[in-house]
Amino acid sequence: MQLKIKFISLFILLAFYGIAQDSIRIRKEPHRRGTSQPSNFSWDKVYVGGNVGLQFGTVTFMELSPLAGYRINDKVSAGVGVTYQYYHYQDRMYDISTNVYGGRVFGRYMFTENIFGHGEYEYLNLEAFDFFPSRRVDVGSLLAGVGYIQHISRNSGIVAMLLYNFTESTYTPYTNPIIRIGLNIGL
């Protein structure tokens, strides 16, 4: 438990360090009287992407998890995403299907050009089959880990992440470690 707390604390400190560096740079720029301050927003810093998953057979699984992020500076980015999953299991005894939906907020800190730390809070609503009839439950998960981006162009790349769920529960839909592979496309 203490290792989990130390890891989360270190990740949060590194993220705030990167944000603090950017805000110091902004404050040092002189403001001229009579001129409007230009917005720091740039579409070049926006990226979209996410994950798509498909599996067919006794277990049918489909996932669509788009995301949108913004590079705050060269090291730090943050964003949001939504998740939809369809799960169907069928054999001689069971025929179960369900829909899972929710969203997430995330932050990333680039250690090198290709390696980054990733932390996110994910909220999902899913069907629990522990009582008859089944019921829907809300599941919140705090995920953190490392990732690698293989750049395709200056603003786009294929992303692979190895994450750990620090708040795993009975209803968490996946087990540790969590492997995600997706795509980021810069605008």
Layout of secondary structure:
Layout: H1 2-28, E1 46-55, E2 59-71, E3 76-90, E4 95-110, E5 115-128, E6 135-151, E7 157-165, E8 178-186
Antiparallel strand pairs: 1-2, 1-8, 2-3, 3-4, 4-5, 5-6, 6-7, 7-8
Explain what this protein looks like in three dimensions.
The chain has 187 residues and is mainly beta. The chain has a domain at 2-22 and 69-81 and 103-186. 14% of the residues lie in helices and 55% in strands. The chain has 1 helix and 8 strands; from the N terminus they run αββββββββ. The protein has one helix spanning 2-28, and strands at 46-55, 59-71, 76-90, 95-110, 115-128, 135-151, 157-165, 178-186. It has an 8-stranded antiparallel beta barrel with strand order 1-2-3-4-5-6-7-8. A hairpin with a 4-residue loop joins strand 2 and strand 3 (76-90). The termini are far apart.
Low-confidence segments:
1-31
Strand content: over 45%
Mean pLDDT, all residues: 80
Shape: elongated
The biggest beta sheet is recorded as: 8 strands, antiparallel, barrel
Which structural class matches the secondary elements? Answer: mainly beta
Relative helix content: 10-25%
Q: Mind telling me the C-alpha Rg?
A: 20 Å
SSE topology string: HEEEEEEEE
How many strand segments?
8
List keywords for this structure.
187 residues; mainly beta; 8-stranded antiparallel beta barrel
Task: Offer a concise description of the structure.
This protein has one helix spanning 2-28; strands spanning 46-55, 59-71, 76-90, 95-110, 115-128, 135-151, 157-165, 178-186. By secondary structure, it is mainly β.
